[in-house]
Amino acid sequence: MHEVGERRHVLISGTARRFSVIAGGPQAAWRGFPPECNTGSRRVGSRSRAVRPRLPLRSAPLSRSHTLTLVRDGDFRNLWIVGAIGGVSRWLEMLVIGIYVFDQTGSPFLVASMLLLRMLPMGLFGAFGGIVAERFDRRRVLIAVMVTMMLLAGGQAALSAAGMLEVWHVGVGAFIAGLVWVTDFPVRRTLMGEIAGAERTGAAMSLDIMSSSGTRMLGPVLGGALYADVGMFGAFALTAIGYACAVAMLLRLRRPERAQPSVHEGTIATLRAGFAELRGNRTLVGIFVVTIIFNIWAFPFTSMIPVIGKDVLLLEPDAVGLLASAEGVGAFLGAVGLAVLAAAAWYRRLYFYGVALYLAIVLVFALSETVWLSFLSLVIGGLASAAFASMQSALVLLNASAASKGRMMGVLSMCIGTGLIGFLHLGLMADWLGASTACVVIALEGLVALAISGWLWPELLRAQPRS
Q: How far, in Å, CA of 87 to CA of 211, rounded?
């Protein structure tokens, strides 16, 4: 959920800009409202009066012309498909690794540990992803990412075919994959923005977010079906082929002209300055607290879906894949709906109540013993997660000063890294109490923490002020 910390230096205009703030999730770019929202004056006859700043009540849909020209652009299309390949592979691997580790060990803690290992590099090195995107040749970095993932998946497929694959191989692979993916999102999306150009950047980011949400549906379905039919070999072989196709597409990519690199302050200095500026901004502190709550008590629940699917609902691997895809269905529908319908004044409430609804859904899913209720709850959970994720970066950028936006995004990346604590917490409890009971406990803990945050930071429950 959550890949954040990159810096954007893009100018998004008109309709595309309004859309990208909502649909862009953790990686959205923002440069303020369009000119029609600014304060100004007009003359009517001999009288003039101030025009009150107006905030667009609704975000407009994607510009059709921008969307069509982007899809027809061979370089953009290739890069877009590369992102889709990576997304499908990531969600496919997460599901099959969870099922495999649980089949081999029967330990929910080890299942959660696989996701912990995958997220560990983000917590340790996430702040460096944006630096890589700014200082190195992005095309070559992205090619290196895909080649590494191709070799990693191919090696695990070979071990599985030879009957030599062990749980520790999967754990090492999860950590390496997490380390490599630290650079994928900032590098790839920055490159997409360069190819699209300033005028079409908003449309480009929105297209990528929609396809990313779609991969959350397709990846688990493919993973469950492949695991049921051909085991881990089939899953890793397919992802290796996908990464090879991605490398071929990237080799055909023309490098857009880049601006001269600017002078960058050190990462530690950036984060230190960001924390200093937080002292006088209560709203931002509250936003970061809610992010920490989601990543410690809500997001880790996804690691228990394969465990509960097999152990409680008694589903086969392909059915577990269909069940896990339900959250992706909700996330996709939510991202599209929010982009078209959400009013800017709702941002804070959508963010706060999205987390509350997600935690309530964790509770329902954990107590459910029927497949239909579990599936429906995950669809609703996907809608809730879309509300949270779509508003996260937008709120940080809207409530930070112009000079501190980059610093605040670095702080946000560190807050997301607290998810490591959540996976460890849930995994240990699941081994001790069982997966369902552990999910009930974390949901209740999260709801209590969220209620306290709402009491301490009532700003989170108010309308987002006009800018």
A: 8
- Give the tokens for residue 364: 């329902």
Domain ranges of the chain: 64-258+266-461
Instruction: Identify the CA nearest to 142 among candidates 85, 103, 225, 91.
Output: 85
Q: Kindly state the tokens that stand for 120.
A: 């560990």
What's the distance, CA 147 to chain centroid?
23
Residue matched to tokens 């000079």: 403
Structure confidence by residue, pLDDT tens digits, 103-130: 999 999 999 999 889 888 877 776 676 6
Task: Give the pLDDT mean for 169-193.
Answer: 82
d(CA 1, CA 291) in angstroms, rounded, equals 11
d(CA 92, CA 238): 10
**Residue 113 · residue 171 · CB < 8 Å:** yes
CA-based torsion, 413, 414, 416, 417: positive or negative: positive
**Which backbone phi and psi does 303 adopt, to 5 degrees?**
-70, -20
Phi, psi of 30 (to 5 degrees): -150, 135
In 293-310, which positions are buried (b, 16+ CB within 10 angstroms) versus exposed (e)? bbbbbbbbbbbbbbbbbb
Burial call 186-210: b when 16+ CB within 10 Å, e when fewer: bbbbbbbbbbbbeebbbbbbbbbbe
Place of tokens 């999102």: 185
Give residue 59's pLDDT band: very low, low, confident or very high (50, 70, 90). very low
**Residues 464 and 398: beta-carbon distance below 8 Å:** yes
DSSP-derived 3-state class of residue 51: strand
Q: What is the CATH number of domain 64-258+266-461?
A: 1.20.1250.20
Per the listing, tokens 């530690």 go with: 268
How far apart CA 4 and CA 27 sit, in angstroms, is 6
